[in-house]
Write a structure and sequence with these properties.
Order of helices and strands: HHHHHHHHHHHHHHHHHH
Largest sheet: none
Distance between the termini: 33 Å
Shape: globular
Helix content: over 70%
Strand content: under 5%
Structural class: mainly alpha
Number of strands: 0
Radius of gyration: 23 Å
Number of helices: 18
Length: about 550
């Protein structure tokens, strides 16, 4: 079989991947991955400094992830139509702006921070598909493309690994003056890195495009964006507003209405955002379900770990970073062997194994209560197991999806899988936060209802402290006792609630493993490694 990769360029005139273009692509994806992970080690400081509600703290992570999920596919088309160099640079500049919003967030200005996260997320949504497309445009053999993509994926892994260290070290080094001011420097670091990335792109990258046969599906993009945003908004706000509130129920209704509209539109347009016929393929549908479940479990775990270490146990950003190094280091360790494993073994079994490891690690974490937590290292083995599972699974996901459809639909299958993967990642903080915070709030309310004396102590607090204590479970845990009589109650409620969050993630991952083993493991699939199998997967 020829190893030449099909290209729309004329023979003899195919563009070559220059060192400058590769450097621009990997530096941009490194920055985008740093942006994904930045909140993980500083959530506790953000909570204490800005006085966020528990729901607002969930939005700090998801305000970045939602735009990536909603607009990644469309930005891929924009780059094809109007030029990828310009779009990659714009993505980096958006992350500069978003990072500066985070750095200049005033006291009590959580809205400013969330705005910055949305802007940064839009930048990452442009960067992830565009950086891969620029590499693909300049590589024309399987060997060259696999080599270039492996470098791109290494930069992605490095971003996930380095981000906790960057945030933790800067928070410690700049810890002076205001007690919680230093978390802002993590966003400033992201802005500086993004500015360097934009400069590299402008100076060194070669432009490419592929407008033939490409067009923007605006009706499809608008309807799917509204539907998914409404769904996520309802899930996140349900913990604060109540699941029977008009705003939450209305969000779910809007999500259903616009999803139906999206399906109807995609069945009628010539060039749909997603070819719904892919889901008539049983194997692709199974891989889609496994993808969403597994990615939900992984980032739900990362979010629960962030809240446990930074906001419940009040660890410093640098100490919290230790947990995320453990979660990410297996991506570095296993990177050299991931492609070889897929070449040797059925990708369905590889995927099932990865999901099972995530599930086992989560069940182990659920059994470790924060109330008896002696340090990060008691979580070390479960976190390492989950990291190994994620690396194993994310490498296999696109291979399984692409191998389940005809060759002429491989590109669409890869794009659809990227969107589903990012949707699952976005669901993680949303659902785990909603479950844990609802459970903790109910436990605190029950304790207050059964202990009038405790309620009187809370009522006797100064108004400014009452506002924080009553802002939600995380607020009630943020102020020490004395003067906060709810501190111990909130601590134990949150410990139990986030253990439930770990358990939910574990059940989801084990269900994904079982589905993959039963439905994909026995299928004979090509063991050819698909270059770019890890494309646009936040790690």
């Amino acid at each position: 079989m020829s190893e030449t990769v099909a290209s729309s360029g004329a023979p003899g005139m195919l563009p070559k991947l220059t060192a400058g273009t590769l450097l621009a692509a990997i530096s941009a994806c490194f920055v985008a991955q740093v942006g994904v992970s930045i909140p993980a080690v500083i959530n506790g400081y953000i909570n204490q400094d800005l006085g966020t509600t528990s729901t607002q703290l969930t939005w700090v992570s998801d305000a970045f992830l939602v735009p990536v999920t909603l607009f990644e596919l469309s930005f891929g088309v924009v780059g094809d139509l109007f030029g990828r160099k310009r779009l990659l640079a714009i993505g980096s500049l958006l992350m500069v702006i978003g990072g500066l919003f985070g750095y200049f967030t005033p006291d009590g200005g959580v809205g400013v921070l969330l705005t910055g996260q949305v802007i940064s997320g839009l930048g990452a949504a442009a960067i992830f598909p565009t950086s891969v497309a620029m590499i693909a445009a300049g590589t024309h053999t399987i060997r060259d493309r696999a080599h270039a993509i492996s470098i791109w994926a290494a930069a992605l892994t490095a971003g996930g690994f380095m981000s906790p260290l960057i945030g933790g070290l800067l928070a410690k080094l700049n810890h002076s003056g205001g007690e919680f001011a230093s978390w802002r420097y993590a966003f400033l670091a992201m802005a500086v890195l993004a500015a360097v990335s934009a400069l590299i792109t402008f100076i060194a990258a070669e432009n490419s495009s592929s407008p033939v046969g490409r067009s923007l599906d605006w009706p499809g993009q608008i309807t799917i964006a509204i539907s998914l945003f409404a769904l996520l908004f309802g899930v996140i706000q349900g913990a604060e507003d109540g699941w029977s509130s008009a705003r939450v129920i209305g969000s779910f209704v809007i999500a259903v209405v616009f999803m139906v509209a999206f399906v109807l539109i995609e069945q009628r347009v010539d060039k749909p955002l997603i070819q719904l016929s892919l889901f008539s393929n049983r194997m692709f549908t199974v891989s889609a379900v496994v993808t969403v479940l597994g990615m939900f479990a992984y980032l739900g775990t990362a979010y629960a770990t962030s809240i446990r270490l930074s906001a419940i146990l009040n660890y410093s950003p640098l100490k919290t970073a230790g947990g995320f190094i453990l979660l990410n280091i297996m991506g570095v360790v296993l990177f050299p062997v991931s492609a070889k494993v897929l070449q040797r073994y059925n990708p369905g079994w590889v995927l099932a194994t990865g999901m099972a490891l995530i599930g086992i690690g989560d069940v182990a974490l659920a059994a470790i209560p924060a109330a008896t937590h002696p340090g990060v290292w008691v979580m070390a083995i479960p976190l390492l197991v989950i990291g190994a599972g994620f690396k194993t699974a994310v490498t296999a996901i696109t291979v399984v999806a692409v191998n389940s459809v005809p060759t002429d639909k491989a590109g669409m299958a890869s794009g659809a899988t990227s969107m589903l993967r990012d949707f699952g990642l976005t669901l993680g903080p949303a659902i785990v936060g909603a479950i844990a915070l609802t459970n903790a709030a109910n436990a605190i309310s029950a304790k207050l209802a059964g202990d009038p004396a405790l309620q009187q102590k809370v009522n006797a607090l100064p108004p400014e402290l009452q506002g924080v204590v009553n802002s939600g479970p995380l607020g009630a845990n943020a102020i020490p006792n004395p003067p906060n009589p709810l501190k111990e109650v909130a601590f134990h409620a949150l410990s139990h609630a986030y253990s439930i969050g770990y358990l939910v993630c574990g059940i989801a991952a084990l269900a994904a493993a079982l589905i993959a083993a039963l439905m994909l493991g026995g299928r004979q699939q090509s063991h050819t490694f698909v270059a770019g199998a890890e494309a646009s997967a936040p790690q």
